[in-house]
Amino acid sequence: MVMLNTDMKVAETPAEGLEDYSVNDSYKAWLKKEGVKVYEEFYFPSLAKIELGAWERKGGQGAVIHIPNTHMPNDCHVVEIRPGGKSEPEHHMYESTIYVVSGHGATTVWNNEKEKQSFEWGAGALFSLPLNARYQNFNGSGTEPARYIAVTNAPPMMRLFQDNDFIFNDDFAFRSRFSGDEDFFSGKGKLFKRRIWESNFVPNLPDMPLYGWKERGAGGINAMLEMSNMNMKHHVSEFPVGTYKKGHRHGPGAHLVLASGDAGFSLLWTKLDRSDMIKCDWQKGSMIIVPGDDMFHQHFNIGTTRARYLALKTGDMGLYTPQAGGKADGPDKSLKEGGWQVEYEDEDREIHEIFERELAAHGAKCRMKAFIPWCTGEVGPMSEKET
Fold first, then answer.
1. Comparing C-alpha atoms, which of 387, 378, 383, 323 is closest to residue 356?
2. Sequence-ordered list of residues with C-beta below 8 angstroms from that of 373, at least 6 positions apart, any chain
3. Measured in Å, how far apart are the chain's first and last C-alpha atoms?
4. Cβ-contact 21, 28 below 8 angstroms
């Protein structure tokens, strides 16, 4: 098994690593013009510890996590607003969803001065900015910085129009998405069948209610998120102590952020013999990005508490690709049926052996006996009601 080299590739200065950028690639040109620190990596053990560079217009410091793959449908901006600081007002023709890593503050959103909406946020909050609406972020503390990540679909949008003056300076208001409604960021929402939660603001994602997703296995719970009428689609999943989710694949660009859980790991591989398999250890605040259509991945909880992650990702265009099965129900279907999922009975025995070794190293017990015949542990939860 090949273990991941955690030495991150980083352009230490704005110019370094960017000299091959094409003038025809508007996204790469924007990165160079911003002069922001750029990381080219898909595994970050701690979002709180990512080293940042100057990004004054964002309110202090920042970095862009950019995987050098023209098929990547999104990127991730890591921003830290200085104590008592604020960002410059801006608007843009790409979608953006913010997850607050630490600190507290407020955001103001508007199409015009008469329709300004402001709301407060703290660590664990999630919200989406309406397309091309103006906004400004404020740090609510005079002594501590506030750090957040923003996953955006800037790369394909900039490459589509090839005109960043249009991306940042067009004044068209998408009123069908945001028209200044007073309760737009109130935190209210509506639950639809199949675990779909529609809301534009989640005040505390680690504590939001989730619902059964038995198809993914072992008592897992989930909510699919619809936010700000966006094409980008996100979800939240949680699984019990001593269990793991079924292996699966999908289109590139899913940013997995650990919202809770004290110990776990993910395995990622592309080759059928798993000769290229890598292991990413995680805890609360870690992030793993799925960079390719053909990359299988599987998540394992070896800690003492339930583990919850947020998947920030593109919409249907990036998920339902031919390489990933090409079907909307792919996440719930076995590979044998044309889906994207590896059922427990079909997974390689080594997968479970790795899990049990990791559990033993943490003094924990496996609870997968009901699903894995060769499990040496005990019968654990078989549905969300048994956890």
1. 378
2. none
3. 32
4. yes
Q: pLDDT tens, 311-342?
A: 998 875 444 443 444 455 566 788 888 888 99
Give me the residue label for tokens 């750090």: 147
Q: In angstroms, how far is CA 29 from the centroid of its own chain?
A: 24
The count of residues in the chain is: 387
Beta strands per DSSP E along 47-125: 53-55, 60-65, 75-81, 96-102, 104-110, 117-122
pTM of the full predicted structure? 0.90
Nearest CA-CA partner of 72 in 253, 236, 198: 253
Residue that the structure tokens 């957040």 belong to: 148
pLDDT of residue 184: 95
d(CA 101, CA 89): 21
Residue 71: pLDDT band (50, 70, 90) is confident
Q: Which of 124, 288, 301, 107 is nearest to 208 (CA)?
A: 124
The H or E element that residue 103 is part of is none
Q: What is the CA radius of gyration of the chain?
A: 21
Q: For residue range 191-222, what is the model confidence (pLDDT) as tens digits?
A: 998 799 999 999 999 999 999 888 777 889 99
Beta bridge partners of 78: 63, 149
Residue 237 CA to residue 128 CA, distance in Å, equals 19
The residue type found at 324 is: A
User: For residue 267, is it left (φ>0), alpha (ψ between -120 and 50) or beta?
Assistant: beta
Instruction: Answer whether 29's CB lies under 8 Å from 164's CB.
Output: yes
